[in-house]
Amino acid sequence: MRYAHVVVDIPTRALEGAFDYAIPAELEGEVEVGCTVLVTFSRRPQVGYVVAVMDHPVAGVSPDKIRPIQQVLAPSSFDLGAARVASWMAREYACPPCEALRPFLAPGQLVKVRREDDDAPWQLVCERSGPVDVRWVRLAEAEEPFEPRKNASRQRAVLSALAAGPVRMAELAATIPGASQAVAALEAKGAVCVEMRRRVRGGDETSLSSAVAKRPDHLTEGQKQALEAIDAACTAARGDVVLVDGVTGSGKTEVYLAAIERVRAQGKGALVLVPEISLTAQTVGRFRSRFGDDVAVLHSRLSAGERYDQWDLVRQGLAHVVVGARSALFAPLYNVGLIIIDEEHEGSYKQGSAPRYHARELAARLARERGCALVLGSATPSLESLARCRAKTWGGVRWTRVSMPERPGTAVLPTVSVVDMTQQFAGGNRSIFSRELTSALEEVIERREKAVLLLNRRGFATFLMCRECGCVPECPHCSTSLTYHERTHELACHTCGRTWPTTAWPDPSAVCPNCGSRYMGAFGVGTQRVEDELAMIVGDRAEVIRMDTDTTSGKGGHQRLLERFDAAECAVLVGTQMIAKGLDFPEVTLVGVVNADTTLKLPDFRAGERTYSLLEQVAGRAGRGERPGKVIVQTYWAAHPAIQAVARHDRSLFLSPELDERMEADYPPYARLANVVASGRDPRTVSLALDDLAADLRRKLQGARGWEVLGPADCLKARAKDRVRRHVMVKAPVDANMGELLGRATRELGPRPGVSIAVDVDCYDLM
Ligand code: ADP
Ligand code: ZN
Ligand code: ZN
Predict the structure, then answer these.
(1) Which residues pair with 586 in a beta bridge?
(2) Rounded to two decimals, what is the model's pTM?
(3) Residues near ligand 1 with C-beta < 6 Å?
């Protein structure tokens, strides 16, 4: 008899580990690590995941006390190495073990046990995606062509449709009425054959000219050095990390491609992570142009079926290069030679719901588990990664930084000028566009080139504000300022999605909810206004393409806009953060940042870092071809180090004051920071639960060196969806095991009815 360690799918912190079950003889060949199984737990049926298979039960348990596994519900979706990483994730991020395993399941798998009410029998709900087979019809191979009867016009139509080659049954049915009966009749006579073929869904296609990665004649010095460091890390085979610190356009993608070629030659695969918003067909195309069908693509814009097919290609060993968003780390690729995280500084690598992992940390752990190398790439590396490279070793592995300060060939970094908007205003210019930006746009149009205009997202939204009392309407259910939508005359809450019809000044019915004044006016830089003012400058001399969440919703929306921009002769692309990343259009010679400083004012210790990397990234979109680029940054805060650093291409101008501040205040990278948020409908029970938790944490820590418990306090977003939100922040030394302590404290707090507690270790969202 063999035994299995099973993690039961009950998402509670009270259940810490796995439980032993016997593998009955009839399931002997079927139960393996990674399977979803049906077991009995606490006298009721439960779904579980096999994380280990053993010859003996755990010591001390008599074999006849161990219950059998009842059924295998889904085949294996992860291996032992992945199971170990999941177990680390549960400890590190203080989440229930089953929540750490769920991301490793096949996309679209939904298997659970439930019952209608307390007396009803338990029912198994099983939904799994599977491969889709499609019916194809082709002509049978025969000596002589089949001749249908005179009046069999449908059969004739089918046969003539097939004359040019096989056709999908669905297509025949859509074009020829009664096609399925005709095909059945023809099949019975041996005239046609019906075959099932596997269809693979997903995998982006594009016509973008920049979506192929031409192999360069020579690698740059920086690229060679990066590849050498990566080779050394691969040879060390213990999870060493190489940080490729290369300016925008320095050819980091070529480094990734060359490194992947080398590991593929050794028969190994690679995981490539790209931020969700830059995971465009352009990016995917570069990998496909080098590795063809060996590439699988995984991201959240794919349908469940598409995700399943791409995932299944990897599991079947048909694709060895996985390009995806952070969740690509869970792909069933077991023989991994290399993990790459492009734009590693991106905040979106942190998962916002349980398991709240950071892709960089998870990848580092996975690289150690698989004995492969981890490559991090960025023009603006995170302060965390830079600190580890300075320390040289971290978590038992080497961290090496390689710098690539130059662009290949003749391309040079763009010139950056900062425009102080307070002076524009004082000088009588009331437009959103400074004189500098206006004339630069004029030049671009005259030379028939392309420009990109960035609107910093937080300032992008328009609000209604009373000019008399300063009131900004807030959502009554969430503490979020409502944004104003000019086209639909609506106020909308971006937390809960509710909308209200409204009017704004100069409409005579506009009224302030606070003081009754009529002067409720739109405030902030809205798309509409930018578009209108841009139209006055550009006229019909250039195409204006707007890219934001409104215009890119829907499948392929983003893609179509980029293809339009690519195809245009002379165009201006206006957009939010999503345009800052990864775009590589050589004809872009001007980048304008309309409002650089809105993100600087956010109450978050990373505000400066985020603004700096956003500006540096967007500036990097200019001058990637032969013609030099120009960047104009409009700001009300010209002296800020983040802006000065971008203006002078000198990271240290930002880094040294920033690091001093972080050290002073005990923030990352000098400390770890966790955010524990309690939420619920009743303010009293929420407060009580969090007070108890904070008191317990303080008791457990007893003033331990380098630890600090802050709060409880209301979150900045103190309400969301009618629930109040309070939080406790915990600071700890960089090498401290925070997850362990926070997991223990929340377990011991026990369940509090009506209160949910979210533990966010190494948090990025402080609101
Ligand atoms: P990054 O990812 O660092 O911003 P990319 O990888 O997009 O930069 O490269 C910028 C451009 O330089 C691309 O068009 C790429 O084809 C080209 N390139 C990369 N390496 C070389 C090289 N060694 N020689 C010539 N061109 C190169
Ligand atoms: Zn008012
Ligand atoms: Zn709301």
Answers:
(1) none
(2) 0.82
(3) 214, 216, 218-220, 223, 246, 248-254, 408-409, 584
